[in-house]
Amino acid sequence: xxxxxxxxNSTIKYALFNKRKLSHNTVSxxxxxxxLAELIALHQPEKAIVSSVRAIPKAWLKYLQTHTPTTLLTHxxxxxxxxxxxxxxxxxxxxIAVAVAAFTxxxxxxxxxxxxxxxxxxxxxxxxxxxxxxxxxxGIEMRYKAMHxxxxxxxxxxxxxxxxxxxxxxxxxxxAGVLGHLCFEVDGAIQFYSSHFKMLKVLITGGxxxxxxxxxxxxxxxxxxxxxxxxxxxxxxxx
Length: 239
Prior knowledge:
alpha/beta, Nucleotidyltransferase, domain 5, five-stranded mixed β-sheet
């Protein structure tokens, strides 16, 4: 049993894998030693891996490392892919993980991974397992907050159920700009990469991945646990 932990900007995701089969996953909004202790006691993982985009509390990390052999993912961790990136030390660990997952799932294809979380990231990996970089854009929540905080009169919009391309009120117009036109943005990125990489597989993940997957024109593969799948593949590769 392998324990994979994805520490994002907003949440912490825990998953247990038996080889490549996902057997358990849970989400927390904070570093909870009691939750970690419960998972370890119940499932007794043989090893663990952590991907983090923010600082990890010493007590939480010490407990994990004390109770199971733990890998902290960095750009130095042996990977089944090659990182063709000028500053690998700055490359988000979650971006490394999704690239590994995509290459493992579709090894004979070029892949574009769109991770729609706090930020929206685009990552391209070739059929030969070479990570080529990508792009980072503001996520949905960040866009709403930016419009409110950096203007004098635009409100902070919380009702986001209707997606229109042309708004008939300020609130509708803001929803159109964030939600409706975001789909144009993502579809445009997919079309760009598709023109440069033939037989491209497009995968989408992240907290807002399902929202985008339902509204995009292009054919995509929805993979909600892609970071965790990639972390598990890295653990298996280093076994």
